[in-house]
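FIELD: query
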Amino acid sequence: MDVGMIVALLAMGSFGGFAAGLLGIGGGMILVPFITMIFTARHIAPELIVHMAIATSLATIMFTSLSSVRAHHLHGAVLWKVVAMLAPGILIGSWIGPWIGKQMNTHLLSVVFGLFVAFSATQMLLPKRPSAARELPKEPGMLAMGGLIGVVAGLVGAGGGFISVPFMTWCNVRIHNAVGTSAALGFPIAFAGTMSNIYFGWGEPGLPQYSLGFIYLPALLLIALASVTLAPVGARLAHRMPVRRLQKIFAFILYALAAYMLAKAF
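FIELD: result
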């Protein structure tokens, strides 16, 4: 791996980690398009590029989540009871998501990624106020919601914040608590999804050297190293910003990344 590639991966990890701490999105929604660009430049087999980008991105979230959640916890922003209610469904869904992704070709997977991100951005940007009486659902509803978050996050290689943050704010959870709680949810999503990507990618023809299933280890190590350093910085900044500005930043970053992935697909 040349110096330029190392610098690019470190810069990408820094940006992804900062965004993960700031927005509670695990960094995956930002990392996947950039990793896709780098893997394309390295001439990895086209049919594997998006699968490997998603798997590698998801694996980095194990490290980013632990770094950012500590900073959010120190601000009292993590709703641990909500984490406990969503986690069982998330663990199941995050294993299933990569299996679904393996059945799709690269173009279809890019379309699914782009559409989900654009939908999530729109939900966050709309100025609708939730009903004052609306609350988080009871245990069965939270189990089902955790499963949905896990499946989609495992499918597109993200920490699930693009679903969990809009879901929690729709249920009248304060945006800063939604971001902190979403950061904590990133670890079970990433752990189960990473194990799934190793299992379903094991022995796949055409994988480059130093791959572990669909995960490209050199990229994982460099991105994780940079992301854990910047995630706490983003988390601290999140608690100093107005709610609406945080929502707008979240939405417009996601729109830009959705546009790239849809353009790549077509």
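FIELD: remark
Residues 95 and 196 are 5 Å apart (CA to CA).
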